[in-house]
Amino acid sequence: MTKLLENIKFETKTQIFFESPKRIKKSLSIIQKVFNSNQKIVIARELTKIHEEFYRGKVSDLSEIMSNTSNNLEKGELVILLEGAHEKYEIDYHLEEILFKELKPLLTLRQVAKIISKISPKNSKEIYNFFLKK
User: What is the pTM of this model?
Assistant: First the structure.
């Protein structure tokens, strides 16, 4: 499951998983490790049935609730809805520096800023101004 979650980490669409009641706690801990703790999640139990239940919140909150509660999660069908990423990509400052150093001899600063902005949450103007000061 970890590999699957790593592959969809930056997907902007909501992800839906069917999960076994026996694996829900382990799955939540994996989700919490792969995504940030503020990722919104819904756990739906017994959808379309008379006793359907919904647990909504952040991954960290639901992990804590599920590990501390003795609710009926041991039975029934579970569906996990995982909020999509707000940013398509996440790149840290260190990677921007490496890209800049590699591309600068080949391209203009404006072109380098445009390329980095494609994989960064920052726009090309912010990147351009940052590297202009260096």
Answer: 0.63
Confidence of residue 57 (pLDDT cuts 50, 70, 90): very high
Residue type, 75: K
Q: What is the 8-class DSSP label of residue 14?
A: P
Q: Do the Cβ atoms of 85 and 11 come closer than 8 Å? A: yes
Residue 16 token pair:
């839906």
Whether residues 7 and 26 share a domain: the answer is yes
- Put residue 76 in one of left, alpha, beta given phi > 0 → left and psi -120 to 50 → alpha: left
Residues 105 and 75 occupy one common structural domain: no
Q: Report the Cα 6 to chain-centroid distance in Å.
A: 9
Between the alpha carbon of residue 54 and those of residues 36, 72, 81, 91, 92, the distances in Å are: 21, 12, 11, 34, 35
Residue 37's domain spans which residues? 2-82
88 in any annotated domain: no
